[in-house]
Amino acid sequence: MTVDKQLVRKAFDKAATTYDANAVLQREIADRMLERLAYIKHQPRVVLDAGTGTGYGAQHLRTRYPDTAIVALDLAEAMLKIARPPTSLWQKLRGTAPFHAVCGDIDQLPLKTNSVDMIWSSLALQWCNDLNVSFAELYRVLAPNGLLMFATFGPDTLKELRSAFAEVDGYTHVNEFVDMHDIGDVLVSAGFNTPVMDMEYITLTYADLKTMLYELKGIGAHNVTAGRNAGLMGKARWAALVDAFERRRKDGRLPATYEVIYGHAWVNQKNRTQDGYQIVQMNIQRRRSEQGLL
Q1: What percent of the chain has pLDDT over 70?
Q2: What own/partner pairs with CB < 8 Å and gap ≥ 24 does 229-237 have?
Q3: For the chain, is the Cβ count within 10 Å smaller at the N or the C terminus?
Q4: Helices within 142-234 (DSSP H only)
């Protein structure tokens, strides 16, 4: 189930020009994240949009925080070319807050430790292979009292497509997604404080399987797992897949379920050094007393 990052970059580079026309769900989830952000009191000086895509979230963050520097990071350079907003002469003269487009990987952020005050990541973490590595990097670059806010997909995402493919062959066709409770555990392990997590199901419906797969291809959501079938799907297997999916039709439409996980967490000012290392406090004397050793 390992994700090939080179194939991820290639897929999203290719989908850059078709992404916005097909990213209905992605925009809806970003909007719901923005609604949640309205209830959080935080005034960052620098915001990192980790996995910005074509910049939908970054543009809204720029509007919400007009005096805040925005760092829009993505693995795909073609996406960043669309995400980078045009700057008028008036904006240059007015001195608007800077907008930086950075090509990079969430697992190896090209940013200094403690350099950003808020990280926003909408539907990018599911393309990471090890959230322990990802959250450790996000924790590293956040300044004390910094905020992490994200959305990602849970295990029930595209369950209909996954089960239909399972009736056809033994290859992997849909990425594996991490459970919400496991994500919370990884956040705490990385050093984040009191993570707040919630989940909802969003179901899109389609007239036929070809339309669904065309939309997924249009946003760059290809199968990039190590267990994929590198060859083309033949007519017989395609017919078997269509037949398997048709048995899941409800009310005249084919469903595609998405389990959407939302989360936010803070970095405590007292639990790390200037170099980004976490400080773990241990009251040895108290523990010995409780054990009857003192």
Answers
A1: 85
A2: 229/169, 229/171, 237/168, 237/169
A3: C
A4: 159-166, 180-190, 209-218
- Residues 68 and 47: beta-carbon distance below 8 Å: yes
pLDDT band at 232 (very low <50, low <70, confident <90, very high): low
Pairing of strands 116-122, 254-266: unpaired
Sequence-separated contacts (24+) of 203-208 with Cβ below 8 Å: 203/255, 203/256, 203/257, 203/258, 204/24, 204/25, 204/255, 204/256, 204/258, 205/250, 205/253, 205/254, 205/255, 205/256, 206/253, 206/254, 206/256, 207/253, 207/254, 208/254
Domains observed in the chain: 5-290 (3.40.50.150)
CB 226 within 8 A of CB 148: no
pLDDT tens digits for range 7-17: 999 999 999 99
Encoding tokens for residue 10? 């290639």
Q: What are phi and psi of 74, to 5 degrees?
A: -150, 155
3-state secondary structure of 64: helix
Residues 169/231, Cβ–Cβ less than 8 Å: no
* Predicted pLDDT at 289: 47
Residue 105 backbone dihedrals phi, psi, to 5 degrees: -110, 135
Task: Specify the 3-state DSSP secondary structure of 214.
Answer: helix
CA–chain centroid gap for 108, Å, is 15
CA distance 34 to 6: 30
Which pTM value belongs to this model?
0.87
Per the CB < 8 A criterion, the answer to whether 4 and 226 are in contact is yes
Strands (E), 85-244: 99-103, 116-122, 142-153, 193-206
Burial of 225 (0-12, 13-18, 19+ CB in 10 A): middle
- Residue 145: strand pairing partners: none
